């Protein structure tokens, strides 16, 4: 067909690899966001640790947890939408 190695990768091999790899990457990226709450107990302060501090000060158990849940949901949703957008762009290339 007369393609160079780069053109073969760009037009044939690359899009096929992206179609298979990006959905798994999306799942792992969202799982990483969700797992930061677990890591926060081990190493650094994150949203969950901040929620625990608020609960200790105000003695409100439900509303800080609900708020943190909504924040984590929004972060995961936004990451999913961003990766979907990147996936659509990568498919068109």
- Please give the number of β-strands: 0
Share of β-strand residues: under 5%
Provide mean pLDDT, rounded: 81
Order of helices and strands: HHH
The share of residues in helices is over 70%
Query: Which structural category fits the helices and strands?
Result: mainly alpha
Count of alpha/pi helices: 3
Query: What is the approximate shape?
Result: rod-shaped
Strand count, sense and barrel status of the largest sheet are: none
Distance between the termini: 19 Å
Alpha-carbon Rg, integer: 20 Å
Uncertain parts: none
Overview of this protein structure:
The protein contains three helices and no strands. The protein has 93 residues and is mostly helical. Helix 1 packs antiparallel against helix 3. The longest helix is centred in the first third of the chain and has 38 residues. It is rod-shaped and about 70 Å long. The two termini are 19 Å apart. The model has no long low-confidence stretch (mean pLDDT 81).
Note the topology.
Blueprint: H1 5-42, H2 47-58, H3 62-92
Helix pairs in contact: 1-3
What's the short version?
With 93 residues, the protein is an all-alpha fold. It is built from 3 helices and no strands.
Which properties best describe this structure?
93 residues, mainly alpha, 87% helix, rod-shaped
